[in-house]
Amino acid sequence: MNPLESSREISSLPPLRPTLAGRGWGKRDWVSGRTLGLVAFAGVLMVVMASVSSGFLTELTFFSQSRYVAFYVLVALAQAVCLAAGDLNLAVGAVGSLTTVLLGLLFADAHLSAWIAAPLAFLLGPLTGWLHGWAVTRLKIDAFIVTLSMMFVYMGLRSGISGGNSYTIPASFWWLGQGEIGGWLPWMLIIVLLVLAAVGYLYRNTVLGRRLLATGSNAEAARLSGINTRRMIVTAHMLSGSFSALAAIIWASWSGNAAPETGDSWLVISFAVAIIGGTGLKGSLISPLGILMGAIIFKLIQHSLVILRVNDNYSNTLLGALILLAIIVDRGREQWEKGRR
Amino acid sequence: MLELRHISKSFGPTRALADVSLSFQAGEIHGLIGENGAGKSTTIRIVTGLQQPDAGEVWLDGARVSFRDCQDAQTHGIGFVNQELAVLPDASVGENIMIDKLATRRWGVIDWRETYARAAEHMLRVGLVVPPERLVRELSAAQKQLVQIAKALSANVRVLLLDEPTSSLTEHEARRLFGLLRELRGRGVAIIFVSHKLDEVLALCDRVSVLRDGGFVGTREVGMVNSGELARLMLGRTANDDHLGVLSPDTTAEMLKAEGIVRAGRCAGAGFTLHRGEILGFYGLVGSGRTELARIVIGEDQMDAGRLLIRGKPVRPRSIEESLYHHRLGYVTENRKEEGLMLHDSVETNLTMAVWPRLRRPVTRRIDARASAQVADGLIESLGVKTPGRDAAVGNLSGGNQQKVSIGKWLAADCDILIIDEPTVGVDVGAKEQIHRLIWDLAAREQKAVIVISSDLPELVRMANRILVFREQRIVGEVRDIDVRRKTYAEVSAEIAPHLA
Q1: Nearest chain B Cα distance for residue A197, angstroms
Q2: Do A4 and B437 touch (CB under 8 A)?
Q3: Is the ipTM above a cut-off of 0.90?
Q4: A40 CA to chain B: closest CA distance, Å?
Q5: Is there a contact between B262 and B301 (Cβ–Cβ < 8 Å)?
């Protein structure tokens, strides 16, 4: 049969009327083998740790650790949005660091109220992101170089401005990081879960999100399909900066002071959690649920190192190995799925 | 000399080769043809050691061999020039040729003078006249191919495999390549020439072997067959050389009009008119200005002077985004894999990406997943895209089906002006036929205005009603009424020939 016999209907598009046919592209993310595998792995880790450590399954552990998980999610998102658009951001921590210092200045020197200081400090995120995106798309410098050099620029600035001293965050702003709804559910967790849901919605359901992913998948094809890929790259970097700044503000509120060394450990966390969470290293793939699971797994492993009394000085070695392991496992899973087909 | 005996190879449940036996002789050019998926690539991979057969034997010079990998095959004298042009773009020509045998002094210090001198000898043999110090990225596609051939020959190959070597060459360059291959044949090299282009195979080869669906169909002496018979062997049916039919363009509706378009170094004053329901062919060699003009029309490049009217309105598109969303003008790129498609993404994503803004729901601004699925399913059905489903990755489809998806993207976007660049490059004969019919139907039944850019003249003669001939950045001739007068390929090429001389 000639499949082209029905071609007279080519451009008469089907009416845009919802039916029960098909569920679109959501499949790939929420119930993919990758994400399910992560959920299972996190579960196994929890069971093992619960059986080793008697104190693990208490409410206290859950809610104290949930803040870390929430925080890691934000840091990982700062990296993941860039990765998904086919770029990367090495200045994730440095932007957070500079935001922290700015926030401290606004509180300590300018004596602004939290409602003004926090949003002002937050603006630094999209602003630096815009700068990165502009340099990448207009000056045509590799994102690696741009964010690497800006990382040092920011780190120098924050050391120079702060002189290495921490600023005090007024108690009126502690609620964001320390407050709990009903005395048990951290505000921070709620906020981050909402952010994750918004990110999921953005990438699954909106034109902007799909275009960001298309740019990461094949920038040239996206551009030739009428997508302004420069704008997409700039947007990705602005989103990335925003998540860095948000993470910094929440961290400051949580810890009660604005320490300039905030952010120094973020770079490795951002890659580790994003990669464990199944973010595509060559773009086009981002999974909010995966990143949440990545953050949980990351925290569980850190926690287990404490339980196993591993010398804290070795933790970076283990983190690096963990990133590699995540990639190897993911490759193996892909091979296995291919073999089954 | 080289013999494959009863080779079988499966990937999972898919059988790529089933009991294939082929024999190649020293001093012959042996064509290997078949549709996409017929097993040509797998055969090449086995001969070059990239893959191991599940069953069967490879014999070389009367001895059974089994290549562990590509290098192993090379040491046995098997050279490979592939479609994707595997060269190091940022290394010099000499280094590319000599990469595995750089001349060294003591302590492994490279003797560049000696290396380049030896590279120059190999370059001489293939007629590549550039300084060996030149970077490969600065060469043309044809020259890059010569680098590959020189590299293969430098290893004293006795068997040379070429996979679609002419797909990125102009006619003139291809003819030179053929001359070189004949010369190599004279020196006793066995040449295996894999191609889609039947006329090319008939012009060059001594014998032709045909594969179909992973099985061996037969080997023919070239003198004893014509292209019709080869096509029949490949497809299992007869190919059709007729005009697709008479188009009925609406000459009162000027969809696209260009006047005196100039861009320095690219386009030296070109003008044309495209009507509704018309297929206008842009014929010329690579670099003759046809793609360059198209790039100006779609807003990818800006013109220095000239006037462009879309549906009668003067416009100056600044980007592809603008020409798509404001002028409903779609551009199907020549380079599908790198520029046209997101290979890892689903058929649905690729088909709908240009219409996402239109699929948004009013309040939530979300893309309606069901509507998107419907658009995709509708196009998959009407274009006859062979895919397991709309969720399948485009990269897993055959070349012809990928091309349908690239075209489908613009149909979804409701473009009524389409510019299609080299629609059937790298597509097998069966799919080519379908794509021709698809494009023709768009103009004939949907009254789309279509420009087809192609260096394949028979293809244009088959579809277009008008052909513009490009040479040296100008439009040098026009062939009219191809469909109405039922002009044959011979008539059209006779009409074009004086313009190209």
Answers
A1: 14
A2: yes
A3: no
A4: 25
A5: no
